[in-house]
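Entry 14. Ran structure prediction on the chain below.
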Amino acid sequence: MSSWKIFFSPIPSSSLITNCAQLEGIFTCSFFLSNQFPIEIKGKNPGHIVWSLTCMSAITRTPKPETVRTMETLSSRKRNVNQGRQLLSGCGNLYIMIWETTVTKVYCADHTYTTIRLPINSTVGDIVLSARDKLCLGHDPVLCEVKSNGERVLFREKDRCIMMSLSLNGRLFIAPREHLDALTPVPEQEGPNSSTMHVIEVMSTKELATQITHYDWELFMAVHEQEMLNKVFGPTVFQEGVAANLEQFLRRFDQLQYWVVTEMVLLNNVGKRVQLLRKFIKLAQHCKELNNFHAFFAITMGLGHLAVSRLSQTWEKLPGKVKKMFSEFETVMEPVRNHRSYRLAVSKLTSPIIPFMPLLIKDMTFTNEGNKTYYDNMVNFEKMHMIAQTLRTVRFCRRNHLEPESPETMK
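Output, structure tokens:
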């Protein structure tokens, strides 16, 4: 009988065996797969074991993944939720490597700023140290995010990868702790003054949905399952674990949602607003047909935002057929019975699928927080399997690659 040993490694599964020696941990378990091969898993903690359980199918049944090229630095990809053309700009590969550097502005209370270049996985302490020296600040300043509404979010010194987790219109500020109340948003955070409908209306709705879907797919493919574990278990389990690609994918959801809201409220002409509302509803429909539930949820939630839903004159002039279509969208999105409508819809599909990622993160978080990790000093493997099942769902969604549509089919 053949015997395999699988050791956990926080890197892609293709490198599991070559890196096992230095990563051997303290938790060990042995069991049999359906093919009767004994499997031994070792990990430094239960979070590692979850990842091992998820990787087993990749080692036993799937070929070695292709090498992923690194992404160009984020500084060359400025994205603005308020600009339609920038929202749709794509690229060949969006995979972020943690050692890549990014250029970030750090502001003072008087709105002067310095520009720093640091690796994406830098800690808040690294950012403070670099900015403090350039701005000649005193000892022990703190770093915080100031949002466009004036809200302040204070970061901890050991927080990592915060450049990727800033809100859409947030800015980094550095100041002494006693001066935090004096921090105000910079003028550029006030938002746009005009709509970009002229960019949207020149593209067919199907072409627009296709372009959005391909961009979302690249972001989704860049997310490694390990990043989801980093997000859910946090630094208590993975001290240096980051989720840069996952944060970028989640940020994309907010970009799409508030892009819809922004475009709707910036139009003053009711007739044009009705036209744009109709286009957005059809855009959501095409995204759903392309199995892009990430964009489907974002667009539909944008149209359901209070700032848009209160435009009563616009909704009244919408054709009844389109209103009915939007009502069906809301049914799919209902959170009743743990999003049963959405889960049933997805269960009937085949990959490629771009899932509603916030729900997957929520599933893993509830499983982690609602179940004990240990019972009588033994690992709760039922909990580990539940979390691993969510990761397998992600793997199923991208089992098949998204094929680009020809220009003729998009007309």
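DSSP finds 16 helices and ten strands in the chain. Will compare against last week's run tomorrow.
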